[in-house]
Amino acid sequence: MDDFVGRHWSNFAGQMGRVLPGGRLVEVDNDHPVFDSFFRVEDPRAFPHPYFRVSPDYFGIYEDNDRAKRLLMIVNYNQDVSEYWEWSDTNINAIDLNNEAYELGVDYVIYGMTH
Question: Which DSSP string corresponds to 24-92?
Fold first, then answer.
């Protein structure tokens, strides 16, 4: 999940309760394998939301609510990774931020395909 900030959290969490009843959204640590599936994203919190410049957080729902099991979904909260992709051919954001967003996206795909 991507592209929402601030006050949108309560609505999102409520709707996720309908999608995955009983699933708990918990913070995903920087050392989780999802951030090292293909590229090593050292600190996914290091690049801000492209417009609001707030620090992002990452939350996930794990199988059986057990962090030792499979990550079922990840949430980019206070972030809009896809916006970096959409505007990467312009000078709106620094190239290193665009690259970091692509690396994060590739890691998500690889993790999803291998877990």
Answer: --EEPPTTSGGGGSSS--S-GGGS--TTT-PPPEEEEEEGGG-TTS-EEEEEEETB-HHHHHHTTTSSS
